[in-house]
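Lecture 7 notes: from sequence to structure.

We start with a single chain of 307 residues. Read the sequence below before looking at the structure.
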Amino acid sequence: MDFIGLFFVSLGFAVVLFYGVKLLLFARMFYPRIWFPQPKSFFTSMGEWAVVTGASDGIGRAYAFELASRGMNIVILSRTKEKLDHVANEIEKNTGQKVDVLVADFTTDSIYEGLKEKLKNLNIGVLVNNVGVLPSHLPCKFLQTKDLEQGITKVINCNVKAMVQMSQIILPGMEQRGKGMIVNISSGVAIVPSPLYTMYCASKLFVERVSQGLQAEYEAKGILIQTVAPFGVSTAMTGYQKPNFVTLTARDFVRTSLQYLTSGDKTHGSIRHTVLGWLVKNAPLQILHSEIVQDSLLEYVKKRVGS
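Now the structure, written as tokens:
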């Protein structure tokens, strides 16, 4: 066999091997309990307390319940005390764990010194940075966003600054103890540039990049930092869309996503959303960004949320 023939045979073998490994890694996602097992004490070994932002409803509330059911005491944060008190009572009644309530409006930027003071004496093993906002109830083009100036500030403060500031408060304690876990909630729409969700998508991409950088910096310290990027979850943000094959309840999504905590620095949280993520990532942007698709998406969301 001449050199050119040997080269192409070797190249073909390398390509087959590369995609074979990728397929094997993807196949693991179907069996998280086998490939990513967690001991019973996995969460409590991180620390006594878990802190969950945006915990009055939806994904944050589900994380608070699930972590409490695994033996952790919980600090829940959001801006509405009445809702937080209701969630705290439910968690305490159903799990027997302690729940502390901290009222915090993450759309502002003057809350962090107070939070740092209130959290400083707790042995915090898990932080879930879940709080987030959409600039508009319905997807729309940037200049069509109602109260655009206010929307820009809210998205930056709530989706970007809150995650970094809460990590700044809690990460030093984890580093000192040599253990801990931070879960940062992103979004599946951040996998590609997403018209009609431009600001939201960009803010969630920021979450992913910071999370991946922090994991590289602190993994050797015994700290696990992971981005969770769901697609459809039935929450207030999505107008409580009726669950279906793709849209999961917050409780089902969180239970599934917790099985993937040791799978890597990013997960879509469920095998359904992982497959959807692969499809979206590999779809031609010319199609995803076309006016027809944008108009169809808007009509679909209007129909789903009943607007």
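The chain is about 50% helix and 15% strand. Keep this in mind for problem set 3.
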